[in-house]
Amino acid sequence: MNSQNPIPMPEAIDLLKLFGGFVYLLMGGDLLVRGALGLARESKIPPMIVGLTVVAMGTSAPELMVSSVSALSGFPGIAVGNIIGSNIANVLLVLGVPVLIHPIICDQTGLAKQTGLMVGVSILFIVLCFLELVTFREGILLIVLLCGFLYLATRGSDLVPALDSAEEELERVLGLPGKNIWIAAFILLGVIALPLGADLVVEGATGLAAGWGVSEAVIGLSLIALGTSLPELSTTVIAALHKSSDVAIGNVVGSNVFNILAIFGITAMLTDIPVDVAFLTFDVWIMLLSSVLLLLFVLFKATIGKVWGVVLLAAYMGYMLAIY
Asked: Taking the model in full, what pTM does it have?
C-alpha cells in the first residue's frame, strides 16, 4: 500500500522557513517601529521627522532586510524581484482589496505631485535596471535623491507623501514603550528579529525556486513581494473598515517611492546588483503601467470603487499567472 504526501518533505520545510521568516519580519518591523516611536515621543523629536523617517523606514524594514540579505547572499533576482513585485502589489492588491469595502476618492492635496514623483522614480528605476549592473554609485544617487525629497518635506513641501500624520500615529499605536529600558528592548528585539527573518525567507525562497523549477526572481516577484506587502495591506484594510481608506493612496505612493530610493539604494551601496534581463522584458513595464494607472486616477480625481477593485485584483491575478 503506497502512501503519498501531498507536499514533499523538503518543500514543506522550505514553506515553513518562508512562513516563519515572514513572522519574524513582521514582528521585528512592528517592534522596531514601536520602539522608535516610543524613543521619538520621549525625545520630543518633531512629528514631521518621525513620520518621514521612523514610520516610513520602519514599515519598509522587511523589504530592506530581504533585499539586502538576498543580494549579499548571491541571489540578486530576489532583491530586484522583491522591489518590483512589492510596487506592483501595492497598487493592484493593496488598493484593490480596501475599495471592495469602501471607495477611495483621489482628491487629496498634493497627491498629484506625489503620484507624479512615484512615476518619475519608477522610470529612473527602469533606466538603472537597463544598466544591467547597479553599483555603489547608483545607490548613492538614489539615497541623495531620497534625502533631497525628505529635506523638501521638512521645509513644508507636499511633494513627499507623509505616510500618515506622525502625531496621529503616536496616538493610534497601542503599546508604545515609555521607559528607556523598554524602548531599548523593543528596538534590540526588532534589530535581532529582522535579519533572522530575512535569512529564513531567502533560504525558503531559494529552496522553493529549486523545487518548483522556477527562478529566484519569480519567487521574489510573487511570494516574497506579497509577504513583505502584508503590513501595507493590513493597514489599508483597517482604514477601509473605518471608512477612511483615502489614506491608503498616500501609504501606497510613499511605500513605492521608498522601495526604490531607500531599499534599492541601500542594497546597491552594500553590493553590486546584477539585473536579470527577464525583468526588463515584462515585469518593470507592469510596475510602470500600474503607477501610471494610479496617476490617471489622481489626475482625474476619480473615485476607485468596487468595480475598479475587481479589475485591479483580476489584473494582479493575471500577472501572477503570467510569471508562473
From this structure: 0.85
